[in-house]
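quick one, two chains, predict together pls
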Amino acid sequence: MSKSLLIISRQAPWSGPGAKEALDIVLAGGAFDLPIGLLFLDDGIFQLLANQNAAAIEQKNLSANLQALTMFGVDDLYACNHSLSERGITPAGLAVADVQSLSTEEVRALIDRYDQVITL
Amino acid sequence: MKFAIALYSAAHAPSSRRALRFAEAALASGHEIVRLFFYQDGVHSASSNIVTPQDEQDIAQQWATFVSQHQLDGVVCIAAALRRGVLNEDEAARYQRPGVNLKAPWELSGLGQLHDAIQTADRLICFGGP
């Protein structure tokens, strides 16, 4: 049986290539049919916001890559509730459907459930 | 135990030195390293163009020596490396760039190598990152 991997994505989409590079690990894992989860934590939450204008800072929009997750078979998407409320964002304001928002307790249990964890 | 080691920081970062010392200690204790995978700014830790002052540790050089000596599988992510100007001879020729700063024992390859290492290893140990 394949080992499960949780990616914890902590970078805002405009902070550099970090957010995209974390997502690339997830998409590559999905392409290999591996059991992958993706948790948005801290500033990583900002990747999930709707109506982002990446062109204004001459960047590519990450949203399309996020929408591709389910196509790559990655359905286990999570957002940390505490990170959301710290930034005044409600789960309803997220652009990506089917992101489960988790309490701090649940985040702890989630990390425990995966065989391996990468934080970027 | 079989370790996979991922590094996300450049040679001048403390975490690159810590990763190297961890890797040395792992082998010295009889463990196995299935692969080293350098990602994000970790690609700079494999650069052969780093020059450190004489009274400082040359961690990039130490990494290369360590990998050669123990014939380890040292993989540098190709997408992350291209973005940061870390090129081997093939890539420098392909993109018509004047400088080559990645040589043996390092190999450029894709993220599949990271996933493969994770599946093979008992533990993935990561260094650097946010």
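The mean pLDDT of chain A is 93.
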